[in-house]
Amino acid sequence: MSPTKPYIVAEMSGNHNGSLDRALALVDAAADAGADAIKIQTYTADTLTVDVKHPRFQLSAGHELWGGEYLYDLYTRAHTPWDWHAPIFERARERGIEAFSSPFDPTAVELLEKLDAPRYKIASSEITDLPLIRLCASTGKPIIISTGMATLREITAAVDAARGAGATDVTVLSCTASYPAPPESTNLRRIPVLAEALRLPIGLSDHTLGIGVPVAAVALGAVLIEKHVTLDRADGGVDSAFSLDPAELAALVVESERAWQALGSTAIGPTEAEKEGLRFRRSLYVVTDVRAGEPVTEANVRSIRPTGGLEPDAIGSVLGRVFRTDAAKGTPLTWDLI
């Protein structure tokens, strides 16, 4: 069991819908819900791709959310303007939560360093960009690496690159890079496998609907949960269809901590919380007033709650014996009575 409750990251992504006021409201919503951090993404369309209208730069027509859209146009619509970063970071500090980002090129790292970003997140599609990983790691900040689409070889290479560049605090996130992600493709059982293979803390970057999957991930050892958030799915937004609203985010905070608390230990036996219940197991009791010399029968001795008398299984050994002394109704049946 992790010594601390799961770290909850609210991913803003493009759900600011092009409004700084909405972006700041998302910071407030994350803080109000009890999240530990708000995360953004630091890129422009030009740092991610080029403006070319060719099928290789176009999402498949059948894509559930962005079918047929060109990458440049999608990233133009979804990016967080760089001059918004400072007010977003400042609002997060005011609200007592962390703000950090996923950089996508060296200029993004340069900006985030000026803002004293506390950590860096490597997005799933950038896990093979080892120079970017080394640059982030060279800052000495904690590194979070998302692993959507990645093989174990690619994950190990990314971790080795981070460590080789000086990173000492690395967290790896199990992830299914599908938007939204079907639960049956999430493969939460790989969380303990990754933990064993990498000897690192493992979290979950989750794109499924609702909070059931991330809560289940905590039971398998996830120490960090990242979920996209929006103020209201009905408002639209590039990621709103698979994002949590503020009430759902608050529920995730509560239920993930509850799942973590429930992990407990591997000890089998009564817990401290069950001590009172132990008093009310069944045992053999005298259930009618009896006199010395009367036989023990099913009418005057029964297995009832609470404890104090002989074990219920002793009934076969006491029936037909006689009472040695008088006994009032409600007396625990013990061997010295018969």
TrEMBL record:
Gene3D superfamilies: Aldolase class I, Antifreeze-like/N-acetylneuraminic acid synthase C-terminal domain
Residue ranges of every copy of the AFP-like domain listed in the record: 283-338
Record has Ion transport as a keyword: no
Pfam families xref list: NeuB, SAF
Keyword set includes Translocase: no
InterPro entries in alphabetical order: AFP_Neu5c_C_sf (IPR036732), Aldolase_TIM (IPR013785), PseI-like (IPR051690), PseI/NeuA/B-like_N (IPR013132), Pseudaminic_synth_PseI (IPR020030), SAF (IPR013974), SAF_AFP_Neu5Ac (IPR006190), SAF_PseI/NeuA/NeuB (IPR057736)
Residues in coiled coil: none
Keywords: Transferase
EC number(s) reported in the record: 2.5.1.56
Single GO BP term: carbohydrate biosynthetic process
Single GO MF descriptor: N-acetylneuraminate synthase activity
Protein's UniProt name: N-acetylneuraminate synthase
Organism listed in the record: Actinoplanes octamycinicus
